Amino acid sequence: MKADWRLSRRSFISAVTGTAISTSLGNLSTGEEVVPFKKAILLGMLPSGMPLRDRIKLAKDVGFDGLEIPPMDEEAAKKLREVAEDVGIELHSIIYGGWHAPLSSADEKVIEAGLEGLKRALHTAKIVGADAVLLVPGIVNAQVRYAECYERSQRNIKRILPIAEELGVTIAVENVWNNFLLSPIEFARYVDEFGSKRLRAYFDVGNIVKFGFPEDWILTLGKRIVKVHLKDFKRDRNEFVMLLEGDVNWKAVRRALLEIGYSGYLTAELSGGNEAYLRDVSARMDKIIKGV
């Protein structure tokens, strides 16, 4: 399928005016803007020493709507879903990754391990009710050329895509520091070439700051984005920092997400901490969502 990252004039006007109407009218009963974002964190950010139910309840109590969880066996997944439903929090995504067994490898044994890991993640998603699995599509390094990474990763993802389509779970390819998909135009083309609604983009705000501008990538990727990770990055220190303390232009990111009509989860991908720390993360995300 040929990639088309450019909007037609009619599509552009429709998208922008539609967004403008929805965001400017807001909530007519209160006069407040209705922002279509929900907050989530990684399960691994919660204190590990606490019982499972207490961990999940803590996430809910400090203001989060959802959790992103790792792949797990069927029994553990069912237990986690039961607890999450009882507490009232959504398990919205599976953070699989794929660094350990990249689908760009020349070794078929590595590929098979990667496909099995991805399949396990997709089945975990189905069990817990998550609608997406995060995938690092491939890695460019001294052993794997860029062109090889592109061709192999697409070919191998296509092997597992029928399972994703059958389960109704989206494989969401993320932009990471893997020396691959280094421009938003190429990222858009890569996604489009699959020709499947079950292969989309997982956009990480902080990962782009080192070599680009998140708001620019968001506007180019547009409707391809199904999930968003929040991190912040300081260019002059070359390191990730706490939300609102780096070089991300959060107001521009927010505007871009609203412009493309993104609605769904913003998931903080940070280090873990205690209740006070998690409340601080939640409050910072509230500021990003409100545009203050």
Compact description:
With 292 residues, the protein is an alpha/beta fold.
The portion of residues assigned to helices is 40-55%
- Average pLDDT rating: 91
User: How far apart, in Å, are the first and last alpha carbons?
Assistant: 40 Å
β-strand number: 10
Please, what is the CATH homologous superfamily?
A: Divalent-metal-dependent TIM barrel enzymes
Radius of gyration: 19 Å
The unreliable regions are: 1-30
CATH topology: TIM Barrel
**Whole-number total of structural domains:** 1
Q: Any idea what the CATH architecture is?
A: Alpha-Beta Barrel
Structural class: alpha/beta
The helix-strand sequence is: HEHEHEHEHEHEHHEEEHEH
Q: Specify the biggest β-sheet.
A: 8 strands, parallel, barrel
Name of the CATH class: Alpha Beta
Strand content: 15-25%
Tell me the overall shape.
globular
Strand order across the biggest sheet?
A: 1-2-3-4-5-6-7-10
Separate helix tally: 10
Report on this structure.
This protein is an alpha/beta fold and 292 residues long. The protein has one domain (34-290): TIM Barrel, CATH 3.20.20.150. It is 45% helix and 17% strand. The chain contains ten helices and ten strands. The strands form two sheets. Strands 1-2-3-4-5-6-7-10 form an eight-stranded parallel barrel, surrounded by six helices. Strands 8-9 form a two-stranded antiparallel ribbon. It is globular and about 45 Å long. 40% of the residues are buried. Mean pLDDT is 91; it is low at 1-30.
